[in-house]
Write a structure and sequence with these properties.
This protein is mainly α. The protein is 75% helix and 0% strand. Helix 6 packs antiparallel against helix 8.
Length: 304
């Protein structure tokens, strides 16, 4: 029984799924603060539904890539390529999780249900096959990867969006805040996944996957990784510019972006697998700190 649960955890990429659920939860709290109301039941719906939808997309990804996973060291021991789980069983798990997740999220509102469905389609049907054809896959994959904050934010609103009274704050509520939540996670993914693509390049090549900007571990790819990390610095000013946050977030986000950029610049100079891993670890540290800081700062801005 323990082995079955372990295989299911690997099939749905449990740690990645938890990370996605965390991003959605932070955005849910931001939306709740904006409305000055919090629904524990809706938060449970969001967390559970988001977990199931993300797990479903990850499982579909492994189903589609089973032959590729057999060729790579980092994925060869997954339950499908290792033969510990039948594809039919994995397909049933994927479909049930997807349908159940969308059904639960639809209890929040139709926007969340639609976004969750789009995220599964983009990740499994568009991004996954594209990984073996073009580095453009990283850009395509960044779209569903940046949807969880939108799921969380819009999930904080009531079932009937037409009943929401935001008056002069409508532009902030339905355009500015969602845009900022989306763009932070969207841009963050490029240095994160390109760093992974760098130190996993040899393994990826065994599976026919080439995700680096130039498909090579060259100076241009290193420059692009650095520039994508550097873009996180101007992102720090967006909440303040649009009246969503205070200078507290600007300072925290600027320092975080500067450190992120420094690590990426070191990689530009060294161009080693070890320096690429440091970029990845910096990205994993950066995102939760920025999202938590944004939540706290937004609360201060809203209630000061």
């Amino acid at each position: 029984m323990k082995d079955i649960f372990t295989d299911i955890k690997e099939l749905i990429k449990f740690r990645l799924t938890l990370t996605v659920a965390f991003s959605a939860s932070i955005a849910f709290l931001i939306g709740s603060k904006f409305q000055d109301q919090f629904s524990l039941l809706n938060w449970i719906y969001l967390t559970l539904g988001g977990f199931l939808v993300t797990g479903s997309a990850s499982a579909f990804n492994e189903l589609i890539e089973v032959d590729i996973d057999k060729l790579m060291v980092r994925t060869a021991n997954r339950p499908l390529p290792a033969g510990r789980m039948a594809t039919g069983k994995a397909l049933v798990i994927s479909i049930i999780m997807g349908l159940l997740g969308i059904s639960i999220l639809s209890k929040l509102n139709f926007i969340v249900a639609i976004l969750s469905f789009i995220s599964i389609i983009l990740y499994a049907v568009v991004y996954t096959p594209l990984k073996t054809k073009s580095p453009v896959a990283v850009f395509v994959g960044a779209i569903p990867g940046a949807l969880p904050p939108l799921l969380g934010y819009f999930g904080s609103f009531s079932l009937k969006l037409t009943d929401i009274q935001v008056e002069d704050r409508a532009w902030l509520a339905f355009v500015i805040i969602p845009f900022i939540l989306f763009i932070i996670q969207f841009i963050w993914q490029f240095p994160h996944f390109w760093a992974i693509a760098w130190f996993s390049d040899e393994d990826y090549r065994r599976g026919g996957i080439q995700l680096l900007p130039t498909t090579k571990k060259d100076k241009i790819s290193a420059w692009i990784i650095f520039l994508s990390a550097f873009l996180m610095i101007p992102v720090a000013f967006l909440p303040y510019y649009y009246g969503m946050g205070t200078l507290i977030f600007v300072v925290i986000a600027f320092l975080g972006g500067a450190y992120f950029s420094y690590v990426a610049f070191r990689h530009l100079l060294l161009m080693t697998d070890r320096s690429a891993k440091k970029v990845m670890f910096a990205s994993l540290l950066y995102l939760p700190i920025i999202q938590l800081s944004l939540l706290l700062d937004f609360s201060l801005k809203l209630y000061k």
